[in-house]
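Per-record layout

source: Hymenobacter busanensis
name: AI-2E family transporter
length: 364
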Amino acid sequence: MENIYTPRQRHVLLIASLLGLGGLMLLGLAQYLTAFLGAGILFVVFRPWWLALVHRRRWNRRLVAVLLLLVTVVVLIIPFVALSTLLIDRLVAFARRPELIMDVLHKLEHATGFQIIGRQNVQQILQQVARQVSSWVPSLATGTLNFLVIVGLMLFTMYYLFMQETYFLLGLRRYLPFRSDTLTELGDSLRNNVNANVLGQVVVSLVQSILTGLTLWVFAVPDPFFWGVVAFFMAFLPVLGTPLVWGPAALYQFSQGNVGQAIGILLVGLVVIINVDNLLRIVLAKRMGDIHPLVTLVGLVLGVEIFGIIGLVVGPLLVSYFLVLMEVFRRENRAAKAAKKAHAKPVGGNSGSSLPNASGPAGA
């Protein structure tokens, strides 16, 4: 029996079917998307170790894969869950007892003579902040069981990415609709983003956190360890960062009448912490991937809103990929125009060259 579709129609319907099925799969896996994104990011982070141990030293593939999973759990997952739980629990406690912050604000109003904010507004702000941060961190936002499922999926996917490394990389080159040089650019952009926004940013945030916590401890701010943890998360913001922590701490000491300690916090923050941050970012940018701060800032706002905490990496990556593809589009358009001109040039050249030959005899 003859098929009613033309070859072009079958081709279009095949593409539409693939897109439809892919969309349904993404919709069904939407709540677990962070697991697969996290596995891909960790694959890029740990791949240099994998290449060194498996490809150069010829270690057992399965053993190295299991070791990398253990490193992920011990170094990344457990500390992250502990820090995020501490942060959110404390924010919830502040939201339930706004009088602790109101007392500081009243003293600050008395010292400055300006009315800052009302009790009701303070409680609403604290509740909104606690709710927003909870939505970013999957450990409390999605429940323990769902969080364990996400972590399990991430580790499982990461294991098979390493074990099936060759097929995975060949599959990317085979099925992604880009040329080889475009894939290379996208790979370089992925590596630069992961290095800058994971490895480099974690180093910067850790140093910033330690310096902020020590500063608050030296100048007798209550609970410096907790505020050091807050500084670790705030340091991911490339513009605001840790001033959101030591700035209010200086205001707190000023409200308590400790003017000297407030000035000390401000001096250390402005002279030491900010300069160390700038110096580290410059050094690490040269070593780990030079990402423009505006790309990072826009990507953070975009990524955290869509993907949660993993959006700290995925967001800047999306912006970088957009810019790379725009550059590829511009370059291919320019190449197409150049090819069109080169194709048209011989026609004009032949007609132009025939004019002297035609006029030569006439002139003679």
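summary: Confidence is low (pLDDT under 50) at residues 138-142, 351-364. The first helix runs from residue 7 to 28.
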